[in-house]
Amino acid sequence: MSGGTTEAYIVDALRTPIGKKNGALAAEHPIDLGAHVIRESIRRTGLDPSVVDDVIFGCVDAIGGQAGNIARLAWLAAGYPEAVPGVTVDRQCGSSQQAVHFGVQAIKSGTADVVVTGGVQNMSRIPISSAMTVGREFGFDTPTSGSEGWTQRYGDEEVSQFRGAEMIAEKWGLSREELERWALRSHERAAAAIAEGRFEREIAPYGDVRVDQGPRETSLEKMASLQPLVEGGRLTAAVASQISDGASAVTLASAEAVERYGLTPRARVHHISARGDDPLLMLTAPIPATRYALEKTGMSIDDIDLVEINEAFAPVVLAWIDELGVDPGKVNVNGGAIALGHPLGATGTKLMTTLLHELERTGGRWGLQTICEGGGTANVTILERV
């Protein structure tokens, strides 16, 4: 292992195409989806798999085919050495972004030189909140139900991402039309990116599946006809992220490993952090998390060339843009999760893959990524293209 503090570099980033609910990837085992991106990353970098120090993957609802430490199982299913360990992370929607952060910390501490990070989720076979559904069999209606400490602090109010998104729309005065305009922009940008082939370098085709399935032709008129998710609310399915299947991987290496193995560094991980906010609003943490990251680095939001912020719901992005004073023209320039999908545990490294490739395509230097997460937390990563 390398000694002392070192830089952590991204030497590869890729993803599967993202399948829609019950779509082209629905029948695939999550382990095999994870194995696919691991195998492709090892092939693309030319690394000897035996030099990998750890495999860190994000996954939410780790039950059934996603249980049993899927990071380890996917590595073994890829056919690689049993001596290499693996660990699975659950920071909700930011799980694989956190996997990158743990990998970076290992490299910077000198305890690892090469770490394969990533994430996987098959939401068609294992629906969102499946772990909570199983929990009901053991007397837990929600993770917090019956907790005296939680009730004393937050009462017995409903904790729901849908309610949180509605509260954000109300607090920031976002109209339904504003939300739907952002959603339409997401689809239009995604469709343009696909038509121009912007995703081709970052996608590792899965069999015959080569293109993201989420983007669709829509209009403000179609969106206006949908019923709200919450009675009397402003949100509809049109302004929410899509249920999706997929996997993604980001391979990290120390400066020493880059030199030793002849790797090509593509980005330096400049900053990693995570912060929290109100767990009832739940989805606002990207705002304080971004402010914290900028303060820690001495950077301004104007220094950032491109942003990837997960479109869990349109109000999450619009409130963040408003609070940070960000130019919308550099946010999710190839569309976001409303159009392209949100395969939970895979989304963090999926967004990082897209961010890196778009920085390379446009010649930008700095990229910032943030994701809202269950429990009211958010990760922020700042990359410097090299």
For this entry, give a set of tags:
Thiolase-like; 386 residues; acyltransferase; 13 helices; alpha/beta; Acetyl-CoA C-acetyltransferase; Peroxisomal Thiolase, Chain A, domain 1
Radius of gyration: 20 Å
Count of individual helical segments: 13
Q: What's the mean pLDDT score?
A: 97
What is the total tally of β strands? Answer: 10
CATH architecture of the domain at 6-126 and 241-259: 3-Layer(aba) Sandwich
CATH topology-level fold name of the domain at 6-126 and 241-259: Peroxisomal Thiolase, Chain A, domain 1
* CATH superfamily heading of the domain at 6-126 and 241-259: Thiolase/Chalcone synthase
Roughly how many Å apart are the termini? 24 Å
Structural class: alpha/beta
Question: How much helicity do the residues have?
Answer: 25-40%
CATH class of the domain at 6-126 and 241-259: Alpha Beta
SSE string, helices as H and strands as E? EEHEHEHEHHHHHEHEHEHHHEE
User: What best-fitting shape do the alpha-carbon axes yield?
Assistant: globular
